[in-house]
Amino acid sequence: MKVHERPRSTTHHAEAREPRATAGDSLESVSGARQRTLQRMLDHRPAVQSLLQRQRDVDQGSRARTSTTRAGGVVQRFTEDGGYRISANRAFALPAENETQQFFATPALIERSNRILEAMGSRVRLHAGDDAPDALAGMKAVTPRAVDPEQPLFDVNECIDVADRVTGSGQTHALYQGPDDDDVALRRQNPYPAAVGELNLIARELANQEAPTPEGLVAAQEALFGEDDSESFQFTYGDDIEVDTSSPKEALEALEDAIPSLPLRRALLRNIMKDRYEYQPGLQRFAVEVLTPLIQAGHTGEEPETQEGWATRLRQHLDARLADDRNAATAGYRDLPAETLSARSRRLGVNAHARPEVGEAYAIVGTRERTDEDPQKLWSFHFAAVIARDGEDSLTLENYNREKGHEGNPQWYFDLQGPEAQSFHAKHRATVAGALTLRMGAPATEELRAQALDRLPEGASAELTARIQQARTRAGLAAILADATGAAGSDTTGEQ
Question: Where does the pLDDT of residue 407 fall: very low under 50, low under 70, confident under 90, or very high at 90 and above?
């Protein structure tokens, strides 16, 4: 069931920990104790999150609002003035209250966002209305509408489904990009709890690598979790038994001398390898390494004589080892000093440094299993689609499941995400277990590149053609096309 707000009733034995503050969080401000108290009350999430955000607003209002220095330059923060949150370069604004359906923007920003959304195949367009209040001179009131006037704006309410409707594509890949605008690294990523091992590996890389890179992270994921093209057995048992075949019969025969028990061989190959890791040779190798001592000791004690009995024992042993490894990675991630975690996150473009472009989404996901000690309303994840960007600030159009069934509801809302303490990660960090924020989107395919080339205006430069051919992401491709076919001038930063 794709219900990400609902509590999980399964009992887990992993140790529950208080979420650790990341760089920019205000838990240690004068009102930090009040925030921690509110975070422990997440059973009533919408009301409590509103209180939390108001408290953050109070904390942030007490700080200097101009800029903050970090490596690579000065980051301009969005400001709050006259009851509005206003982006750094005054390209868009929205009221200060939470879950607002009001949004104001400059005509140039509205036009550019719509061009990107159109190129993405989005079902949403931004319609400019009346002039904004005097405090937002130069902006227009904006209303989101369905492209098809016969359709509701959203026929879904879950956050990930709303993000898919807004962006016109599935949020299938995590996008990693360092601070120096290096090439983006993409990898298919499942955000659901079933993929906690993959998500936990990201936390492990942050904890263990002093200088992580997007390419190194993706390589580590592929080495362990990468899916092969076809079902097969690929591992080494002992020192010299190489198993590399798609035939279960051949695999059983290869292991016959080393593992005389047929039920044990079948349990290993069919219940562990085939049922769980048939497309993941990296995990097959890991499983064999972990299970070999147990298999070799199988002739002693009370040996389960059935395949089912051995399968249960092997699963329990392997799951305990996987849980220990995840707990160790979680502890390392949680215990990193805030400055260290922020610096490493910045190198990967995750957490407070995740920067999805228009047509992509933020996703905050869990890197560990939830436990009985966690607040009962922890989410599995939360997605928010980006519909506008102004420097470091982004505007999201989102919703979350309010347990009203699978039909859409009109309670969608806008939100403004800024850098560091104003980030999506800082805002939602306490809502999932072992929180990690990712930039999510989809890759640019050869078919999409060809379609973009066909839509270029006559006489387009060779440089523009090359950019399209080299585009890695679907949103990046849409932005290039939007800028090539749109009016000159824009008050937003360019896409990759």
Answer: low
Question: How confident is the model over 84-129, as pLDDT tens digits?
Answer: 999 999 999 999 999 999 999 999 999 999 999 999 999 999 999 9
How many angstroms separate the Cα of 52 from the Cα of each of 41, 213, 426?
10, 33, 11
Taking the C-alpha atoms of residue 359 and residue 116, their distance in angstroms, rounded to an integer, is: 7
Radius of gyration over alpha carbons of the chain, in Å?
A: 25
Q: What DSSP assignment string belongs to 59-96?
A: HHHTS--SEEEETTEEEEPPEEETTEEE-TTSSEEEES
Please name the helix (run of DSSP H) or strand (run of DSSP E) that holds residue 476, with its range, or none: helix 474-485
How much is the pLDDT for 297? 82
Q: What is the mean pLDDT of residues 122-139?
A: 96
Region 195-213: mean pLDDT is 96
Residue 371's identity, in one-letter code, is: T
- Express each pLDDT in 214-248 by its tens digit: 999 999 999 999 876 678 999 999 989 999 999 99
Structure tokens at 431: 């809502």
CA distance 488 to 48: 44
Report the DSSP pairing between strands 104-105 and 92-95.
antiparallel
Asked if residue 83 lies in contact with residue 62, where contact means CB atoms within 8 angstroms, the answer is: no
Mean pLDDT is highest, among 15-24, 403-412, 423-432, for: 423-432
Angstrom distances, CA of residue 34 to CA of 18, 211, 242, 403, 407: 15, 35, 59, 28, 36
Question: Residue 413: enclosing H or E segment and its boundaries?
Answer: strand 413-417
DSSP letters for 279-293: T-HHHHHHHHHHHHH
Cβ pair 102, 133 in contact under 8 A: no
pTM of the model as a whole: 0.81
Instruction: Read off the DSSP letter of residue 38.
Output: H
Do the beta carbons of residue 418 and residue 94 sit within 8 Å? Answer: no
CA distances from 420 to 66, 222, 343, 346 (A): 14, 30, 11, 10
d(CA 320, CA 300): 21
CA gap 487, 495 in Å, rounded: 16
For 149, residues 6+ apart whose C-beta sits below 8 A from its C-beta are none
